[in-house]
TrEMBL record:
It comes from Azospirillum endophyticum. PANTHER family: PROPHAGE INTEGRASE, PROPHAGE INTEGRASE INTS-RELATED. Keywords: DNA integration, DNA recombination, DNA-binding. Residues 209-381 form the Tyr recombinase domain. This is Integrase arm-type DNA-binding domain-containing protein. GO terms for molecular function: DNA binding. SUPFAM superfamilies: DNA breaking-rejoining enzymes. Pfam families: Arm-DNA-bind_3, Phage_int_M, Phage_integrase. Belongs to the 'phage' integrase family.
Length: 410
């Protein structure tokens, strides 16, 4: 490698090498190199070593875009920093990455929650709309405008206190707390925050009394009749909920691809239990499905192409309340009513649990792999017949399945 105290005149008049690469070490600044290729391309490179580290090299840019004086100034800065144990290039690279990350970082709590819903909830949660509404109604009005760096544990506690004591919310307070913890954890993973301000906020106790509402026979009959008087998809959706006892969104988002001749196979990814679940389709259930209009892949839809699931549950509930005269109930209460009704019919608890797709103890899951398909079919058929009798006004006649009551499965 040639050495020289470089000058601008020398660099401007220098001729390209015929082969290889011409490299001249500048004697004015340690580590600075001038490089020239056979094509005439000229550039600067700096070699330096931070104490205790390996030799490093970095390009300083082309000549004459980077003048000799500028190259020397830059090289001196790198050399001086290295002598002090600082890798200036790495330091600048880290600063640039920090600036880029900061530019992408949500500035406020509201912007964080919006990104969390958009980038995580929509692809990972079946009920992401509920989370979005929860944030919009209860969190953003209180702390949405607060800068992300300024959020403290006390802000979260004050928010939950107000929701509980001023707005009178109960179980929803803990749901909001859980969603905030999840959102802030998501932010920490992406380095938007260093710590989760909600991580140590304690769960509120004694505010989540479990619902015990079970529809009486006359109430269930009234709701069925109100639903039967409606049009597709509202009518069929509500009646299939009653006949199968499955969760609201499992029925609401049902695609035709899950429906066989007389069996509904619910895949693991579409149910709370995260396991494949079989629901036998009784004559009553098949009759309901037969009344559904096939517009596309979804069974219950208002979309012209049938691609979007029905989304009018709130309005449907209001109509059912008005038309049936039954109030003080929720859609989920239907599931509890089905379970209770099956018990009254003498269906063994184990069969009921399989119909509802409830989780089972590890020992049972490991050693008892029986699918209970026949037992579920018999039980749901009896339930469908019972509902038919209620609707027909023959509520007093309850047929007990003694085999199920004794746990023999019929």
């Amino acid at each position: 490698m040639a050495r020289a105290k470089l000058t601008d005149r020398q660099l401007q008049s220098m001729k390209p090498p015929e082969t290889g690469r011409l490299v001249i070490y500048d004697e004015a600044v340690p580590g600075l190199e001038f490089r020239m290729t056979p094509t005439g391309a000229k550039s600067w490179r700096m070699k330096y070593r931070v104490k205790g580290a390996a030799l490093r090299q970095v390009s300083l840019g082309p000549y004459p875009a980077i003048k000799l004086s500028d190259a020397r100034d830059r090289a001196r800065d790198i050399y001086t920093a290295a002598k002090k144990g600082v890798d200036l290039i790495e330091q600048e690279k880290q600063a640039a990455e920090d600036d880029e990350r900061s530019a992408k970082r949500p500035a406020t709590v509201a912007k964080l929650l919006s990104r969390y819903v958009e980038e995580y909830c929509k692809t990972n949660q079946r009920r992401w709309e509920t989370v979005e509404r929860m944030f919009s109604a209860h969190v953003e009005p209180a702390i949405g405008a607060k800068a992300l760096d300024d959020v403290r544990r006390a802000d979260i506690v004050e928010l939950l206190d107000d929701l509980q004591n001023k707005k009178g919310l109960n179980a929803q307070v803990n749901r909001i707390r859980s969603q905030l913890i999840a959102a802030f954890n998501w932010a920490v993973e992406r380095e938007f925050l260093d710590v989760n301000p909600a991580a140590t906020v304690k769960r509120r106790k004694n505010i989540e009394a479990p619902r015990e509402r079970v529809l009486e026979d006359k109430e269930l009959a009234a709701i069925w009749k109100a639903a039967a008087s409606l049009t597709y998809p509202s009518s069929q959706l509500l009646r299939l909920l009653i006949l199968t006892g499955q969760r609201r969104d499992e029925v609401r988002c049902l695609p035709w691809s899950e429906i066989g001749d007389d069996l509904w196979t619910l895949p693991a990814e579409r149910n709370k239990g995260k396991r494949q679940h079989e629901i036998p389709l009784t004559a009553a259930a098949l009759e309901v499905l037969g009344g559904a209009t096939r517009l596309g892949p979804m069974v219950f839809t208002c979309d012209a192409e049938g691609k979007k699931p029905y989304a009018g549950m709130k309005r449907l509930k209001e109509i059912l309340d008005r038309e049936s005269g039954v109030t003080g109930w929720t859609i989920h209460d239907i599931r509890r009513t089905v379970a209770t009704g099956l018990g009254r019919l003498g269906v063994a608890q184990e069969v009921i649990e399989h119909i509802l797709n409830h989780s089972r103890p590890t020992l049972h899951k490991t050693y008892n792999v029986h699918a209970y398909r026949d037992e579920k079919r018999i039980a749901l058929a009896a339930w469908g017949e019972h509902v038919g009798r209620l609707v027909a006004g023959d509520a007093a006649k309850v047929v007990i399945l003694e085999g199920h009551r004794r746990g023999r499965g019929g």
